[in-house]
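User: My advisor asked me to double-check a structure prediction for Dihydroorotate dehydrogenase (quinone) before group meeting. I don't want to rely on an old file, so could you generate it fresh from this sequence?
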Amino acid sequence: MYKALIRPLLFCFDPEKIHHFTFSLIRTLSKFPGMKSLFKSLYLVEDKRLERELFGLKFKNPVGLAAGFDKDAKLYNELSNFGFGFVEIGTLTPKPQDGNPKNRLFRLKEDSAIINRMGFNNGGVEKAVERLKKNKGVLIGGNIGKNKVTPNENAVNDYEICFNALFDYVDYFVVNVSSPNTPNLRALQDKEPLTQLLKALQVLNFQKPKTKPILLKIAPDLTDEQLIDIIDIVSTTKIDGVISTNTTISREGLKSNNKTEMGGLSGKPLTNRSTEVIRFLAEKSNKAFPIIGVGGIHSAKDALEKLEAGADLVQLYTGFIYEGPKLIKDINKALLKKAH
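Assistant: Sure, here is a fresh prediction for Dihydroorotate dehydrogenase (quinone) from the sequence you gave:
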């Protein structure tokens, strides 16, 4: 029903406006008696065989919602009813910021893709914390970044502010230095600044009564040499894992007319590259750390390929928009079928 009726209607309108409309609709529907149970009955697959234990956390199933969809932690409780095993909120910054000028979100229908140049638009970490206090048992990842006006030499401070503010309200952290939409942010992926940043967060982490897992989200555009550096950095800083991958700046093989828009590309064109990066990291590190696979998952087959390449969990974003919530169920059903 989603792909035949709902999606064509939604895709008639501006993507960012539709995003806010959909949020309002899901929130409103979820308030009606019985709707939460209806969503769960349609999409949730519960089975012990789907459970995964990673970095001291128990995930009900390995299919999560990637960061960027619920930036401000406004809808994570309702979204979990669609069957997600975990929800990653953010990217959050210390101070609220509007992000880049509109229009900044573009559908590439012919390519089953999206280009975004949102620019970490969010209401600031403190407001998100207030909403996270209403968590009803959803496993939450907190994706953190720096404000646009903060120079790279002061970036560590921004990440530390977000880390401390969110610490009691998220289950794991994701350090985002790989978005192409904040000027010079990707320079923080270089070995020296990235090592310093992760070490600083680990110092804070080990000052807490109990540490929280810290993961690093990387770009799909890194060279093999840079990926080897990432493996080395994970080992040196003793962070808990990697999310592979963020959006790409590549435009190779695209058919859509608006393919030249600036920003990060997500969706089907990213499927193979994201899986390649996962496989490279898993093989070259001898599976030394957990990997969350994200990028171009539009079918159960795509998800299984990432898991077989070395991912421990997967996340959806663009695939969720194009395929609808049934995709979550399809992946979990395929995993159960494989477990027989």
